[in-house]
Design a protein that fits this description.
Radius of gyration: 59 Å
Number of domains: 3
Shape: elongated
Number of helices: 16
Number of strands: 8
CATH architecture of the largest domain: Orthogonal Bundle
Structural class: mainly alpha
Distance between the termini: 138 Å
Largest sheet: 3 strands, antiparallel
Helix content: 55-70%
CATH topology of the largest domain: Hypothetical protein af1432
Length: 508
């Protein structure tokens, strides 16, 4: 039996109500109870004693719960009272703060009005002072401001000009050293192990009897050979050899190979001549293509049209003043690529332009300078315009318009103009330089003339009193025409005419 059940039984109205209090007494018929057996008497007594103990414990617990409830209620009342007191104090503090803030706001308003009043007074005073200053200096406010700004601008301009001059001088000093370093490094990278092959258009004869066999009956063999190869055969110039002459180096090479094999075979007759020439021509064409492919791969250029590769292979048999075109192209491309890396230019454009810059020299079907022919050929194959511009400008026939074009021009000049690059008789070289200077000094008004850059430029200094600016321009044009008409020279010659006026005075 749990405590609640026991508590309910103990305090139930049925057992606690007294007769006549709160209810009517119900009289029930008396029941005759049977006396409990004797063996159940001790158990009943124990149960009653246990019930009394339970009742007593329940009463104690109820009183304890009541006391705890009353204590909790008193504690809550005390806390509530304290909270009410705190709220009252906080309300009083807030009201006090509000009053203080209102007072401060009123003081700020007063200070603001005072500041506004002082500001107006200062403005009035400033206007009066400015008016006095204008009256004293005879200058308006705007004019005085403008004079101050002009003076400050003048000082700043002088300071800026001084700094610019210093920066320019420093940049020039550093630029010369850096440019020299870059050029030397580029030339070092341009070193090539390519062995220059000179095409010698002569064929050795085993004996003098071979000359007669080459000529043939009534000269039919030599006529067939010249007709098949397109070269002139000279048997009388030098004993023991045959000289082959033609403006086309490839034709000379085909004739040389064919004649060498005919001499070795011994059976020289028109039908054999045509057969050997055809075989030699096919072999040379294969050699030319392989040489062109080898040159392209050496400078890391791939996927060029086969026709352009074939034309580049002709460089093997093309020479410019003794400098083989393959050696020149390979060297120039290496120098140009090194310069492009240093200058931050487009390396691919420079590489391709250096490779193809002289391709017009092997175009024999049309007339014109090698620059014009090269530009026309590359345009036909739809090559990049930036590269074509570099080719068109590498001799300054067209003004240089890009960094890449300038690099191609410089690389070509380094490779072609350096000492030892091209074979030329020293006496003829000196004569050409002297001829250039003589042609320039022959014009009226010319004070001095100097051939520079290995004869690629003539620098002319004229008297400013005798020639005007327009006359100076005409002099450059006339001198260029005269050089083209009267001289033979490699590449191009740049004409530079300098007219300088200097005015000097001495402060005493």
């Amino acid at each position: 039996m749990d405590l609640f059940t026991t508590f309910s039984k103990v305090f139930s109205p049925k057992e606690t109500a007294k007769p006549g209090v709160g209810r009517k007494k119900v009289t029930k018929p008396a029941r005759h109870k049977q006396p409990a057996p004797a063996d159940r008497q001790p158990a009943l007594v124990a149960a009653q004693a246990n019930a009394r103990e339970i009742i007593i414990d329940a009463k104690d617990q109820a009183l304890s719960i009541r006391h705890k409830a009353e204590e909790e209620m008193r504690r809550l009342r005390s806390e509530l009272t304290q909270r009410e007191q705190q709220l009252t104090r906080m309300e009083a503090h807030i009201e006090e703060r509000q009053m203080l803030m209102q007072k401060q706001q009123e003081e700020l308003e007063k200070d603001k009005k005072a500041v506004e009043t002082s500001r107006r007074e200062l403005q009035e005073l400033k206007k009066k002072e400015v008016a006095k200053l204008e009256q004293i200096s005879n200058l308006t406010k705007d004019k005085a401001r403008q004079e101050l700004l002009d003076e400050l601008e003048k000082e700043l301009r002088e300071e800026m000009a001084k700094r610019i001059r210093d920066a320019e001088e420093k940049a020039k000093e550093e630029a010369e050293d850096k440019a020299r370093e870059i050029l030397v490094d580029a030339m070092r990278h341009g070193a090539t192990d390519y062995v220059v092959e000179y095409t010698v258009s002569t064929v050795k004869l085993p004996d003098e009897e071979m000359k007669g066999r080459i000529i043939g009956k009534e000269g039919r063999n030599i006529r067939s050979f010249e007709r098949a190869t397109g070269v002139d055969v000279d048997l009388d110039e030098t004993p023991g050899e045959v000289r082959l002459s033609n403006f086309d180096p490839i034709r000379r090479e085909v004739a040389k190979v064919a004649l060498t094999r005919l001499i070795a075979d011994g059976r020289i007759q028109p039908s054999r001549i045509e057969e050997f020439v055809a075989k030699a021509r096919r072999e040379i064409e294969r050699t030319i293509f392989e040489e062109g492919k080898k040159l392209c791969h050496a400078v890391k250029v791939y996927n060029l049209p086969k026709e352009l590769v074939q034309m580049l292979g002709r460089f093997k048999y093309r020479f410019s003043y003794g400098q083989n075109m393959i050696a020149h192209t390979l060297e120039e491309t290496k120098i140009g690529v090194a310069l492009a890396h240093e200058a931050g230019a487009n390396v691919d454009t420079v590489r391709l332009a250096c490779l193809l810059h002289d391709i017009g020299k092997v175009v024999t079907e049309e007339e014109g300078s090698h620059v014009e022919l090269g530009v026309k050929l590359l345009t036909r194959y739809q090559m990049p315009q930036s590269m074509i511009d570099c080719v068109a400008q590498h001799h300054e026939d067209v003004p240089i318009s890009s960094v890449e074009a300038a690099i191609v021009y410089i690389a070509d000049a380094i490779s072609g103009s350096r000492p030892g690059a091209r074979f030329e008789d020293y006496e003829e070289y000196v004569k050409r330089l002297q001829k250039l200077e003589e042609l320039a000094t022959a014009f009226p008004g010319v004070k001095e003339a100097y051939a520079i850059q290995a004869g690629r430029e003539i620098r002319v200094i004229v008297s400013p009193e005798e020639l005007s600016d327009s006359a100076t321009e005409k002099l450059a044009h006339d001198l260029r025409k005269k050089i083209e008409k009267e001289m033979t020279y490699p590449g191009t010659v740049k004409v530079t005419v300098v007219r300088e006026v200097r005015v000097t005075d001495v402060a005493k």
